Protein: MarR family transcriptional regulator
Amino acid sequence: MKDILRNIGIISRALDSISNIEFKELDLAKGQFVYLVRICENPGMIQEKLAEILKIDRTTTARAIKNLEKNGLIIKKTDPNNQKNKLLFPTAEGQAIYPFIIRENEHSNAVALQGLTEEEIDVLVGLLERVKDNISHDWLRVKKGYKREY
Amino acid sequence: MKDILRNIGIISRALDSISNIEFKELDLAKGQFVYLVRICENPGMIQEKLAEILKIDRTTTARAIKNLEKNGLIIKKTDPNNQKNKLLFPTAEGQAIYPFIIRENEHSNAVALQGLTEEEIDVLVGLLERVKDNISHDWLRVKKGYKREY
DNA sequence: TCCTTTTTGTTGCAAATGCAACATAATTTA
DNA sequence: TAAATTATGTTGCATTTGCAACAAAAAGGA
Structure:
C-alpha cells in the first residue's frame, strides 16, 4: 500500500514551524496558536476536549493553556454546572490576535494548495477528513494505554 | 479557500504520538524513528540534507543524530572528500530495528487509509506530493530568516 | 592568491513536550 | 446510599525542541 504518513509529517512540520516563527511577532510561544484559534472559535470548551480534537497530549495542552492564561490571551472559568470543568474563553486581547493567525494560516494554506484546481482541493479535503476519522480512534486508545496488535 | 492545514496537523500529530508510544519498546526516544528510517534507506547522507528532507530544525536534527549514535543505532563517518561533512550510516543494530519501524508505520498507514479505494489512495498520494513541493520552498526560506509578505 | 560568503556542524540556554503519578469532582454500579 | 470507576485537571521530572551564537571547512569572487 502506498504511504501517506511521510509526506503528511513533512507537510505538517513545515507549516507548523513556519507558523511558529511568524507568530513570534505576536509573542505566541511555540505551539500555542492552535489552541488559541480553537478557543476563539469554540468559546466555553474544556481542556480535555481541546486536547482530544487537536490530538495533543492532555498534559501538554494543560500547560499551553496555562501559558495562554498567564499571557492574558484566554481565561478559565469554572463551569457552574460542573465544578470539575474549567471552561475556556478568549480575552479581548486573544480575540484581537485571532485574525492575524487566520491570515497567516490562510496564506500558508494558499501556498500549500498552489496549482491545485478547485476540484482537486475538494477531493483532498474530503480524503483528509476521512483519514482523520480513521486515525482518531486508534489515537485515543493508544493514548489510554491500549496496545495495538499488528 | 478550503483549509487542509488543520487536518494535516491533526493527522500528523496523531500518527506521530502513536508511533512514539509504540517505539518505546524499541528504546527509541521521541521523534527518533524518522531519522533512523531515512538513514537506513539512504546510508551516507549528511545531517543537513536529512533535516531539509524531513523539514526538521537543523539543531534538533543534530541532537537526535547524536542520541542515535550514543545509543549505537547509527554511526558518523567523516567524508574523506570533504572534512566538513559527516556521513551517516546505520549500525547492524539500527538495521535490525528498521523492519519493526516499517511494520508499525505500514499498519498506521493502513488504518489511516481504511475505506479508501485504490484510486482514492493514488489521488491522495499525488496531491500530497504536490502540496509538499509547494510548501518546501517557503519552509527553507523562512527557516533562513526570510520574511514572507502576505 | 586572499577575502568573503556559504555550508555544515556544534553548544548554551530557555522553553515546550509528555509519561507517571497524583488530586478531586462526577458518574456509574452494586 | 456507598463504593468503584471515570472524567478532568495538575505537578514532578526527564527529555526533546529550537533560536542564537559560534566554529571551521569549503566554495566563490575579485
Summary: Strands of chain A lie at 45-46, 74-79, 82-90. The longest strand of chain A covers residues 82-90.
